[in-house]
Amino acid sequence: MDATTAPLLEVRACRQSYHKDSSADLLVLEDVNVTLLGGEIVGLLGRSGSGKSTLLRIVSGLLQPTAGEVRWRGTPITGPAPGVAMVFQSFALFPWLTVQQNVELGLEAQGVPRAEREKRGEAAIDLIGLGGFESAYPKELSGGMRQRVGLARALVVHPDLLLMDEPFSALDVLTAETLRTDLIDLWSEGKLPVSSILMVTHNIEEAVLMCDRILVFSTNPGRVESEIRVPFAHPRNRHDAAFRQMVDDIYALMTRRARPAVLPAVPAGDVTFATPLHPVSTNLLAGLLETLAAPPYDGRADLPALAGSLQLEADELLPLGEALQLLGLGVLEEGDLRLSERGREYAHADTDRRKAIFADALRAHVPLIAAIRRTLDERWNHRASAVRFREELEDHMSPGYAEDTLRTAISWGRYAELFEYDEEAQQFSLEEDHQTAD
Ligand code: ADP
Ligand code: MG
Prior knowledge:
About 40% of the residues lie in helices and about 20% in strands. The chain is an alpha/beta fold. The radius of gyration is 25 Å and the shape is elongated.
């Protein structure tokens, strides 16, 4: 299929903010521009919370953007676009309908006569490899088969544009891979009754495996940061050197961008009170430091390889790497994560020594935690309410980020034994043996 020059869909200067109760609105998308041509598979790659689903809802016409415009074949649209069908991460099947009935739903809405509905329904079910399961109910099917039903339901209307929101992420690894390759095979053979596909993913390999073009999304607010063309012919080989190189490059791009996009662009050790902290567990951090210190990495790892050995995705590994960098225990550079001296020391230390290293890192690099501890040291009763810290954070960030930041500070500080926290009273206190006599 050749890309034609007249755009199928254009998103122009789209902006989306959500109203948040008392404080400022949450800006999710800012100045997003996307053009889709016929005959291409385009990926929207970004971390969770970057606004990918929001953009997909705008593209489908389900959500009217706060500002900007969506054009469908040159004409602005203000409601569901004709010729657009969507596949959801959660399958979204009706449990009381059979496979055939679920698939025919889209056609019913279009007023297609019964006989034709049946014929097209069967054809879509056959195409997607579910022949023989027409009268089964969703609960009788595996996750992979359910998602095939989701695909058949979208394909049955022969949409010009197929939208997919993380369609494989609820499936196990093998099932997801089978479905990806089946879909790409059908696409390459020209058997899919669609002109273009726009798919959202947070999985870099998936994007490189399937897409002709990848739009890398930044977070907070979401914007298209870069566009990458994937020149490889289908079927693609994940082990191919050029394929690996592209995955690595995109990792590097996303790690480089991760700091300015998510955290203020400050070097480790120069974090302000207003720096959001991501809810990252100390257990995971300890595991990551150990894995990094041990062979085959010996202190330095390529992020994709590391993600593979920890069975994590970019989405999950990056916040961990950022946390290590923030604490001076690791350094992110060009797609690699490297242990710092302190990080290496931590990995080889016993539990008490680890807590002490972590406590030092927190006091040195996380002003919020340092402030909580200082307040406790200064108070005669060594207690402090969490409320004032939450309020102070909310002056600098959205209530959601403030809450995450506070929760993270609490769990890190507790692990390092810098303070105790009473959930019920929402109060910090010092352990008995930390209290000085005066
Ligand atoms: P992604 O799909 O990339 O994970 P989303 O588009 O789902 O991102 O969400 C982006 C941000 O917008 C998140 O911070 C999310 O909490 C917020 N958000 C999404 N939908 C709504 C809504 N209806 N009201 C308020 N906030 C929302
Ligand atoms: Mg989403």
